[in-house]
Amino acid sequence: MPYSVKELKTNFKELGSINEKQEKRVRHLETTTIILVVAYIFFQAIIFFSVSQRPTISCQHWWIPFCLSFLIAFIFAITFQRFVTKWERTQYHYDMNFMERELIHHRIVSLQRSNGSSSDQQPTILKCDKVKVYQRYAFIYLVSIALLAYTILILKACRSNLCRNK
User: Fold this and answer.
1) Does residue 150 sit within a domain?
2) Mean pLDDT within 133-149
């Protein structure tokens, strides 16, 4: 069903409004995830430094800081996964709406040209930016792997620092 230029312009404006809201949501989720990661690193560092600096816990009770560290890691992993999933899904919908908005813009320009209107706007060929999508996934996986390595290091340190003299 062909749309008129007026209908397309209305849809273009509506998608622009939706994209602004989605962009704010994406930025909020990114910021929240970064704050979550920093808080996780901070709490694990506190446990590490409390165990490594003159520990008052004997080697027999190495499991206490280990379990505390593991509990924090477990809670963080669930929360981190939830936020990353929301961020990725919201970013995907933002990208799709952005492409749909560009497609509508392309249709408006094409209709204006076919109706004989002079328009300075050039239609562009739309391309999915696969590089950005792959960069996003690479970033998520690299951060996840780094956090997993950090967690393993902290968990090993909980036992080895308490029992290093034994």
Assistant:
1) yes
2) 88
